[in-house]
Amino acid sequence: MWEDYRERWNEGGRLFTNRFAKLSEMNYKRFYRCMCLCAFAYGVLLLFTFCGYNYELGASDVLLMPVLVLLIFYAGKFSQMELHPQVRRFLPLAGYAVFFLAVSVFDWLSAQKGGKVQFFPMLLILFAALYVDRAVVIFVYLVICAAMNVAVCACFAPQFAGHALSADIAAVVMAIGLYWAVIGIYTDDLIHNRALEEKSSRDLLTGLFNKVSTETRIREYLAKGREGTYCALVVMDFDNFKSVNDTYGHQIGDEALKRFGEILRSNFRNLDILGRMGGDEFMLLLKEPVTEEYIVRACNQVEMDLATSHFGNAKGFTCSIGVVMDRLGFSFDNLYRLADDALYEAKARGKACYVLWQSKRIIPPDRLAIYIATANRKKADRIRSICGNGYIYYSSNEISKALNEISLYGESLETVFLDYEMGGMTKEQIEAYMASRPLFQTLPVHDIDVEIDDLHLEGAKG
Questions:
Q1: Is the Cβ–Cβ distance between 425 and 375 less than 8 Å?
Q2: Is 231 inside any structural domain?
Q3: Is the terminal CB of the chain with fewer CB neighbours within 10 Å at N or C?
Q4: Final residue before a domain boundary, out of 136, 165, 200
């Protein structure tokens, strides 16, 4: 039983840490409402006095109402300010302390006049139900307030000091018991709500994050401003998954997807965001610190683990992977577009492989731009001599880097000259990639080996 209590207590501490800002705001609102309620109740008490009930007004009555009004103003004033959660955490404690001091003075001044009702112990117990914080904070605060009440009693009604001490000890014990019950209920609710949130954020088949949760978490991470540190967005697609369902049935297809989720969890870190975007598409965000070696090793291992998986007669599964590494603080939409383009390059290469791209800072050109993709310097110089100095020229001698940069430059390019013999991909693979990407539906692409003297390019100079 005690182990269960201890675990719930520790879990409550962890949940308080995780929800510190929200709990601080909740405590502040409760303090404001408590002061308003106390002012209303005290106003009703004064109204009964004026209506003829046997209650004599004294100095304490003059004291308490202004204090309540000032505390309400205090709470309302600070509620409009943007404050650090730690500051907002202790503002209600300071307000409660002033209120308890005023009530303590009220009680003992009333006791001198023969009053028999002590409000302070009841408020001490009520505080434990209103204010949510760590147990040590509550306990220390209760002891300090009880000691303050005894000190006030010693000043205003020393004959009741023994009574005040015993009443406050009993109140502190009951307050701690009430706190234990309240925090237990609150912790159970938090654990239950967290379990529901976790369940709603997960894909039921693979156990990875679902589409909405994956995109939300990635956007939140990327919005933090990570310029100068590497992260990587990965898009994976199960190859020929429709044929797997058609050939072996949807049950085998589901088993394959479930196994794929297990492979991803075993090859990537717990801190990375792993999600299923729907169907056979998966998305991962590899958080910093991340290196190219880690990405290459993980992608190769994913391909290997998937290829050796089998379900009955179904085996030989593969996937295509597109990766974009970024240290420039690109947005989710830009990284997703680049990773998706890299994925389609992997598919064009024959599937069952990965393609790794890099982000690059793009400065929009002040003139029309031409991209030249060739490993032959003479061919590149020939293009420049024909098109003239009216253009800005970008170039690369590697096909994958060229496709990466063309995707980055996008609509700022006027045309592309491509050497299909530069190596790395066949002409058919390059054409298959370009046919799958919307950019190349409007961007002219010319074979660099075709006669180009008669090409008429807007802005070209002889």
A1: no
A2: yes
A3: N
A4: 200
